[in-house]
Amino acid sequence: MCGRSYCPILARYSAMANSASNIEDLEFTGSSPPSIFVGRYGYPNVFTGPLLLSSKENPAFYDSPDLWNNINIFDLISLRSSLIRGKFRANVHGSGGRMLDYVQELALSPSPAEIEAVFEKKPVGDLILDEDVQPMGPSVPLSDLKVYGARGDSSAEKVVYDTDLKAADGILKLYDHGISVYRVQRILSAGLLGSKKDRKLVPTRWAITTVDDTTSQALLEKIKDFPELSEYQLYKSDSMDNTYIILLMPGKWEYELVEAWYPGSTWNSFGSSVEIYSSYEGYNGRKSYAEIGGCYYAGRLAVAEALIKLRKQGKAIILREAREGYLLPVGVWHVRENVRQALRGNLQKFGTLNEALSAISAMSRVTLTEWVAHSKLLFELLHRTLLSDFAKRRRGFSSETP
CA distances (Å), 84 to each of 235, 272, 355, in order? Predict the structure, then answer.
């Protein structure tokens, strides 16, 4: 009836049902990628626990977004639905008993660990789909949990064991040591960062954005001391029926994410026209949370990382087209990794903004007029260009007038 060649409702139900059917009794033996989840409902008394996998074949891949560049949306849903979310109630200030200790060991581990668990009942419930967090299979209450082989590495342990270090400083030290943002998110979420009296569990959704925001802000402080770009640089990537176009431009730091959601896509399921949203910051940053949400900060981190490598500063805009095939949310990692992928790929260089915009027009289904109408950055740049050209013509006319 919807005209698609596949049914998103059945695809979602099938993934969830297959995941639950793999659990035949209440005693579980398996592994974890490693991965944990901390919920936010009922805060400060939240559900937390490990993500469990019955298969022991390459478990790390199940929670490694940096390796998912070529995966399609249905394979990702199938992959992630295999992860059962074990859960128990804990206070964010640390009262969770021995099971919470095991969760923290798991969060600190750089490699998969073996798990033994006892469920209170068989897994039930829906596949968890979220705009910020990677998909997960059904959840199940835990009555017991044991973790084997979860060991931290020295670079992470040194930061975690420093109970005088503020959480933000801990995030930056871990990132500077080359630890992936996904692992830093886990460590923060598990309540392993911050001064001793301030440590607490951080809901996974909040931890993701906190790490993206904190690390990108620190990078921007360095970027603002770099010389400005002298050209327009255009990049592009495609994944899961999304197109990401990134334009880096000469000038002082400014940043914007503009997203165009097609009818039938995740956040425009029943619309009849393309819906376009944007969030922007100037040289001095934002004072309020971005309207677009976590995707904004994930994209900003990827752009900041690229400018650090270039040792340049500039203006940056991400134009995202989410089309009909993007029918289920998979998490902000998709923005972060696709912008990273684009900025590592083929580069087109232009001498003027108009040349770069012409190239964007050729690679986008959204018209250039629509992009500009919804972009504070492009709108202002174009009008500055027009005013500059007008002023030059005026000066030229005046010099020729007797």
Answer: 37, 36, 50
Q: Report yes or no: 82 and 53 within 8 Å, Cβ to Cβ.
A: yes
| Residue 224, in any domain of the structure | no
Question: What CA–CA distance (Å, rounded) separates 125 from 122?
Answer: 10
Alpha-carbon 203 to chain mean position = 15
Which residue is associated with the tokens 């030059």?
A: 392
Whether residue 201 is found in the same domain as residue 238: no
pLDDT tens-digit series, residues 172-223: 999 999 999 999 999 999 999 999 999 999 999 999 999 999 999 999 999 9
Tens of pLDDT, residue by residue over 305-324, are 999 999 999 999 999 999 98
Lowest average pLDDT, out of 2-16, 53-67, 140-154, 242-256, goes to 2-16
Residues 152 and 189 in one domain: yes
Mind listing the pLDDT tens digit for each residue in 3-34?
565 666 566 566 555 656 666 789 999 999 99
Measure the CA–CA gap between 191 and 177, rounded to whole angstroms. 19
Helix axes 204-223, 181-189, angle to 10 degrees: 130
- Considering the domain architecture, whether residues 174 and 30 belong to the same structural domain is answered as yes
In this structure, the strands spanning 36-38 and 84-91 are: unpaired
Characterise 42 by phi-psi region: left (phi > 0), alpha (psi -120 to 50), beta (else): left
| Cα 161 to Cα 154, 184, 350, distances in angstroms | 10, 15, 49
Is the sign of the CA dihedral 126, 130, 136, 140 positive or negative?
negative
Instruction: Look at residue 401 and tell me whether its pLDDT is greater than 50.
Output: no
Is 244 found in the same domain as 168? Answer: no
CB atoms within 10 A of CB 93: 14
How far CA 382 is from CA of 256, 261, 265, 354, 379, in Å, comes to 15, 24, 30, 8, 5
Separation of alpha carbons 279 and 258, rounded Å: 7
Token couple for 194: 């911050």
353-363 helix and 376-400 helix, angle to the nearest 10 degrees: 140
Same domain, 46 and 156: yes
Tokens 């972060």 correspond to: 336
HSE-CB for 276 with a 13 A CA cutoff: 20
